[in-house]
Amino acid sequence: MLLLAVITFSICGCMKKQEQRTDAEATKSEATEQEELAEEADYMYIDLTMNDINGNSRKLSDFCGKGNYVLIDFWASWCGPCIGEMPNIIENYNKYHSKGFDIVGISFDKNKEAWVSAVAELGLEWHQLSDLAGWSSIGASTYGITSIPANILVDGEGRIVAGNLRGAALGEKLQEIYGQ
């Protein structure tokens, strides 16, 4: 049976309406979340197929398990916290991409024009995929995503090695992997 990586967040993100949590549930510590994700670290990513910005069908396996670390970043153009996290992701992408780090953005947008426009306006140079199904996205159901921004880090062999790498945590993990 495949393990679905369920990622929860202590920082308020964009959440699926029927999945709203109580304050007590939302205060789970980031350390606890990262410990839970560490327990899942030996699980392989789950492949899925979506279209890229140009309408071409692509699979996560086109990018993951090819020898490089890949951040699978779940986001949407309408999600304020997602947009707020992008400068950090861009900075780390620019710093580590030449060392083999890659990103696949999985958008929970429903509107293609909004998605494409946000990618251009934000200057997101990495791979972008979406099925334009919003919270019904195959990415949400496959990985148990109920709040965005969310991400998982996959190693070169395709194993999930970390998740919820936001803010300084992303840069720290990448520095651990690649050095300065």
Give the overall shape. globular
Number of helices: 6
Radius of gyration: 15 Å
Give the amount of beta strand, in percent: 15-25%
**Order of strands, widest sheet:** 3-2-6-5-4-8-9
Q: Determine the mean pLDDT.
A: 84
Q: How many strand elements?
A: 9
Helix/strand order, N-terminal first: EHHEEEHEHEHEEEH
Helix percent reads 25-40%
Main beta sheet, described? 7 strands, mixed
In the predicted model, the low-confidence regions spanning at least 5 consecutive residues are 1-12, 18-35
Short description:
With 180 residues, the chain is α+β, with helices and mostly antiparallel strands. The chain has 6 helices and 9 strands. It is globular, with a radius of gyration of 15 Å.
